[in-house]
Amino acid sequence: MDDQPEMKAKNPWHRPRIIFITVLFVIGIVSMVAIGVVQNKPLHQKYKYGIVLDAGSSHTSVYIYQWPAEKENNTGMVQQMDACNVPGVGISGYSTEPNRAGDSLKSCMDKARSIIPNHRHPETPVYLGATAGMRLLEMKNAAASEKVLESVERVLQTYPFSYQGARIISGQEEGAFGWITVNYLNESLRQASGTLGALDLGGASTQITFVSGQKQESPDNSIDFRLYGHDYHVYTHSFLCYGKDQVLKLSLANEIRPVHTKTETIVVEDPCFHPGYRMNKNFQSVFNSPCVTGLSYPEKNFVHMGSGNGTKCHAAVRKVFNDSGCSYSICSFNGIFQPRVEGQFGAFSAFFFVMDFLNLTTLSLDEAKEELGKYCATPWEIIKQNHPNVKEKYLAEYCFSGTYILTLLEDGYNFTSHNWQDIKFIKKIGNSDAGWTLGYMLNLTNMIPAESPDTPPLPYGGYVTLMVLFAVMILLLGLLACKVFRRPTGSAQKEII
Ligand SMILES: O=P(O)(O)OP(=O)(O)OP(=O)(O)OC[C@H]1O[C@@H](n2cnc3c(O)ncnc32)[C@H](O)[C@@H]1O
Ligand SMILES: [Ca+2]
User: Which parts pass through the membrane (predicted)?
Assistant: First the structure.
């Protein structure tokens, strides 16, 4: 028993060995933490890109989207990187010279090529979707619409991207993808809670889409989605010819009909244009659309003269809605089934442009009607003086467009003063425009899974924190163990001293 402490005290390697083991232990722990951190660190942000061309009736816009390469299936990850407005008219406006349709896209496509990194070009998908302008052209002249699509296809194929096709999308798709876009951007798809309805007003058609708990009486208007593990029963309808440019033609045509055409100068008085507004127009510009049907018209010009009367304008616009003949329990207009509107709505495109210009976005329905009445009665000269920088065509039409919007929402879709505040007039959500294009791309690239993707139980930050805490705990335990392990030796040494 006496020999033992003497032997330990004499061992010259005892202390260095403990130091060596401790150092190794510390290095081990530090390496473990370092490897954990490095291994799980997000890779240097790498983005992927996608391009969607919205070939609308009034103009084409090119949207470029980007998303972090490793997070394709996470909601809210795809963002709009850039939007480019193609100069000139929409592609359906090139029906008589189709080659110019493709050429018109070049400036925006060149821009896309310059802002997307070169090494991503071959894998960047390009989609073109045409909406109501091309639907109408197809109805009027199928061969011309085919040529226009061929022309845009030829040009898009000259770019180094992955061309995925140019086609006319259906009104149902336009409504559904607009709904997906706003709910994806609003991050409402992951939570089973409320979604946003989508209201889109274009130049040639308008769409209404919302989740409805009521019985869907018309299969054409009903879509079922399963997204991120949730089921959605969505009502949608697209009214062709009810975009604001076509309704202007319809309502003008209604006012022209009673006019006696034998007189020298035909004057059409219009309560939806400001007093003092006088413009020479061609009958053809009103009657050239398949939306304005069954009428012969004189090959003459007419004088379009404003009288600025909100009440009469509302009455004139009201005539474009047909309220008779609903074969369902409930309809919007023109015999189309529509359940009662439910929940919150995002109203975008021309709903926003017009209501925002008129400063009506935050008013109640009654206040909006009153303000609009005053605006319509304002003389055209004063309107022009007050807005010298606004395009004159838009400026002349805001009274009509505002009246159409209020009439469509109240008399058409049956919103009331009680649920008026449920409509939010929006242009963007975050940095991305509200519209059908993002939803279209998410769908075609399978970026919205039916089931919720498996997510790690801990976020990255939480994972690293836990790793560090555990490492520190093990280190402390190790040191404690060393101390306890050394204690008998120390007391034995003391005994010798
Ligand atoms: O959906 P479709 O019917 O194909 O048409 P579009 O896609 O071309 O239609 P937009 O939403 O781009 O525009 C809708 C209408 O609003 C008009 N518009 C665009 N910007 C506007 C602004 O700032 N003020 C007023 N009107 C505007 C435009 O000329 C159209 O008549
Ligand atoms: Ca549109």
Answer: 18-38, 460-482
